[in-house]
Amino acid sequence: MEDxxxxxxxxxxxxxxxxxxxxxxxxxxxxxxxxxxxIHVVKRGAMRVESPQHPTLLIDEPSVFFYMNPTxxxxxxxxxxxxxxxxxxxxxxxxxxxxxRALPEIMMIRLRDMPSLDxxxxxxxxxxxxxxxxxxxxxxxxxEVVFIQVLRDAMDQQRLQVGLLAGLxxxxxxKAINAIHTxxxxxxxxxxxxxxxxxxxxxxxxxxxxxxxxxPGNYLTQWRLAVAQSLLxxxxxxxxxxxxxxxxxxxxxxxxxxxxVGMSPTQWLDHFS
Length: 273
Known about the structure:
The protein is an alpha+beta fold and 273 residues long. It has two domains: 6-156, Regulatory protein AraC (Jelly Rolls, Sandwich), CATH 2.60.120; 170-272, Arc Repressor Mutant, subunit A (Orthogonal Bundle). The protein has twelve helices and nine strands. The protein has helices spanning 6-11, 98-102, 118-129, 135-156, 164-169, 171-182, 190-197, 201-212, 216-233, 238-244, 250-260, 265-272, and strands spanning 15-23, 28-30, 37-44, 47-51, 54-59, 63-67, 73-77, 83-90, 107-110. Helix 3 (118-129) packs antiparallel against helix 4 (135-156). The protein is globular and about 60 Å long. The model has no long low-confidence stretch (mean pLDDT 91).
């Protein structure tokens, strides 16, 4: 199967910033106002995870959990043996990245259920325990690798039943989704996308909605606008962006923005800059 994450990683740059590596002795709180996601790797010990967005979690074995969208939460170590590596994540959360919108509030996986992560975590923990030159840069890059491997595992093990990762885990739907990701400017029709998946038009429309949680047309619109937002943040002119995402004119892109985002591209850029 072709790479199902390549376009997401190309369109939305992934940046991790490790800020905690070692014993976690005190309660640590995170806020949604910083517009960041967070990933936490628990090496050992037991802790509670509290948030207004979900019931309190007890983590008492090595695990990885993350919030892809800005979410208030706090970590409460239950003894002095807790050791973690924690990082902030930027992955287009404010840019309409369909992955960040499709993931649950919190995603948690026990490390014993994901042996494919062993080698990356060994390197991460080893680097966290040392004080070599370039330590911060190495920790950041390793945490990005860990995050990508978690996404890969979520698809391979079909850990999510609805949403973008569930769609990418479906061999037939992945072909249509990848086609949209690769060529957002194409005037895709329902029939063309169904042909990409090797399905009838009616069966494709129903299956796509059941698995991804929206119609193919809505997903195409969301992807186009997400790519447009990313390009606008890079300083690209509105007319050029409209051509790149299949709207053909600045006015057409503006109408789509107002319909889906509630403001024009220029207003959106001023608001999020």
